[in-house]
What we know:
With 40 residues, the protein is mainly alpha-helical. It has one domain. 35% of the residues lie in helices and 0% in strands. The two termini are 18 Å apart. The model has no long low-confidence stretch (mean pLDDT 82). InterPro entries: CARME (IPR012901).
Amino acid sequence: MSIELSLEDVMRVAFDYGFHLEHEKIVETTYTANPQAMMQ
């Protein structure tokens, strides 16, 4: 079994553990653009 967390879920957990972002950049890739590859 595997789970795929959304970016929002990962960010919420990171912030809850005290992490902070110095820079945020989202890059579109063919993997994330493929609806068969991961949950949209």
